[in-house]
Amino acid sequence: MVENVHPADVSGLKIELDQALSTLDLALLEAGRSVAVVRNHMAQVVELAERSREMEAAMSRAREQLAVSFEDGAAVPPLRAVPAIGPVEAIDAPVMEPDAQLDEDSGEADPVEAEDPKPEETYPIQAPDPSAKTSRCLRLAVSSKSGNLDLKEVDSSVNENPSVIDVALLDYDGRQATLKLWINDAADPDGVRDALLTSLRNHLGKKDIELSIELEEDSSA
Fold first, then answer.
1. How far apart are CA 81 and CA 75, in angstroms?
2. pTM above 0.70?
3. Is 154 exposed, middle or buried (0-12, 13-18, 19+ CB in 10 A)?
4. What's the whole-number average pLDDT of the chain?
5. What are the sequence ranges of the domains in the chain?
């Protein structure tokens, strides 16, 4: 007895069958992709396996060659004998004479002879010039309150004045000096005196010295 099938049921079954077929197609597609990936990896694995076998074969051949070399005992070249070296004779260096001078091309400068220190000048001022015709003279007395008196500074101060013709040192004991100054007849003695006092104070210091300048006639004129 055939049961009555409703058309709506047939339509629903058809839809379910179509969906099942679509799902199966998708599954087969994914399976095909997976198989392709596996095949790709399999090809790489096979290639690696072949390279591994080649490396193993090369290593085996190398071991065999090394084993044969050790068994045969490769000949080692003998060491060459080196003759012994005798003692080196000492060479006498040339001895330079004490008075021998160095060659100019040696690059060494000749030793500089040390000069003996010169004694301190105790009479630096010149005596009066006999050719200078003048009858006017100044007597200069200068003394230092602290330390020795520097005659060079005194001489420099005196020579700065153009009216002073000549200078003579009469007395000097280290701290005190007496000088005789010949001045030009046309010069003013007072002006020369004031100028000398100013110059001496500037050179020697105002507080450390005592000065006196007096006018006198030259008896030898």
1. 18
2. no
3. buried
4. 76
5. 8-71, 136-217
